[in-house]
Design brief:
eleven-stranded mixed sheet, alpha/beta, two-stranded antiparallel ribbon, about 400 residues, globular, about 40% helix
Length: about 400
């Protein structure tokens, strides 16, 4: 039986889509590709590939192989492919790109392919999978943001922003930093995910559903808190996510705000690291969530075969296995954490309890425009970090530019 092969990004760019051996209906095998940035994750990627192998071993008509595309360029790469009528059959999107693809008609509606009434779907995150009464996606991963901390360096996790900042400052000595977050334009999507927690954690929001509110006083307050930490030099400035996450695994970063999927990745880098998790200690208990839908490419010639994979993924045993691979994330359906899981990872409940107060990192009311708004906001915020403009002016400029963008 063939195993799932990882297509390189180069191969993917040239079109790593489905094809059928021996022809449909003549005993041939339909080969599909599934693109997800998580296949390149050093902790979860190999486990997800084995999960695909389980599917392939259970089938004789459909086979799925994995296409790993680096996270920073994933959305634009896949959207470009889909826009030209090519690309993978199955895609795991983050919400901003999902909204853009949905709005552009690049995603195959799932209503006639998958009977969701057969599954006990998680209602809160699942509501974002339906647009204008049309289902475009199924949750692949729902992962709430929380505060990761090194328990050898921090005996009692901070519960307020003031304690958070003070702890970061006290830990920053020599080659050890108290905190780490993304702060460069090169990691635009990641910066957006990081600053989302500061904006919403201080009572802000990107819009009121009808109008953009990028330069609101609450947003300024939250982003000023983010900038204050940058200015305090408690983070490894210039380090990308891969670098400072390795530093966290090596005990050289005390705290990080990250999502539940980071649990498995961290243990993959250092199984002996003594870390724990607590809610983000900001004034308002609202934080971002990675909602990652799995969708079918409208251009795929093998939509029914692709739906076969999604239906397999939704089976209870396969959902449980997927959740174990993803770490402290939730999946599409209601699952029961095992006693063994809870013993190994007692803080799983922290993540689960945040589901009702977590939001996808999109601009409500302007969902399909989120990637474009994100670019404007991140460019201006990074300019403020670098001192070329003050933060209030940067947000005023972002508000003006984004308002012109959305008309």
């Amino acid at each position: 039986m063939a195993t799932s092969l990882i297509c390189t990004a180069v191969a993917f760019l040239s079109g790593c889509g489905s094809d059928s051996e021996s022809g449909s209906g003549s005993g041939g095998v339909t080969k599909l590709t599934f693109a997800a940035s998580t296949f390149g994750d050093p902790g979860r990627g190999p486990l997800l590939t084995k999960w695909l192998d389980d599917f392939n071993k259970s089938q004789n008509k459909v086979q799925v192989s994995a296409a790993a595309v680096p996270y920073p360029t994933f959305g634009q790469t896949v959207l470009t492919q889909m826009g030209s009528g090519q690309g993978p059959d199955l895609i795991r999107f983050d919400m901003p790109e999902f909204e853009s693809a949905s709005d552009a008609g690049l995603i195959a509606p799932l209503d006639d392919l998958i009977d969701v009434s057969k599954y006990d779907l998680l209602k809160q995150p699942d509501q974002f999978m339906v647009h204008d009464g049309r289902r475009d996606g199924i949750i692949f991963e729902a992962s709430n943001y929380a505060m990761f901390y090194n328990a050898d360096l921090i005996s009692k996790p901070p519960t307020t922003y003031e304690e958070f900042a003070k702890t970061a400052q006290s830990l920053t000595k020599g080659d050890v930093y108290g905190l780490a977050f993304r702060q460069t334009e090169a990691e635009e999507a990641g910066v957006w995910q990081d600053i989302f927690n500061y904006v919403y954690g201080f009572g802000g929001k990107w819009s009121d559903g009808k109008n953009l509110t990028i330069n609101s006083p609450e947003n300024l307050k939250g982003l000023q808190a983010y900038k204050d930490l940058y200015d305090a030099k408690v983070i490894p400035r210039g380090a990308d996510a891969a670098t400072f996450r390795r530093m966290f695994a090596e005990g050289k970063v005390g705290m990080e705000l990250n999502n539940g999927g980071y649990v498995t990745a961290t243990r993959g880098q250092n199984p002996d690291l003594n870390f724990s998790v607590a809610p983000i200690p900001f004034p308002v208990r609202t934080q971002g969530a990675i909602l990652a839908p799995i969708v079918i490419n409208e251009a795929s010639p093998s939509k029914e075969a692709a739906a076969t994979f999604i239906r397999w993924a939704l089976e209870p045993a396969n959902q449980v296995k997927l959740q174990e691979i993803l770490g402290a994330s939730s999946v599409a359906t209601v699952t029961q954490r095992s006693a063994e899981q809870l013993k190994e990872t007692p803080f799983l409940k922290v993540f689960d309890d945040l589901t009702e107060s977590s939001l996808p990192q999109i601009v409500l009311g302007f969902e399909a425009k989120t990637p474009d708004i994100r670019k404007i906001v991140v460019q201006n915020v990074v300019a403020a970090l670098q001192g070329t403009v003050d933060l209030k002016t940067a947000l005023d400029r972002a508000q003006e530019q984004a308002t012109q963008l959305v008309g």
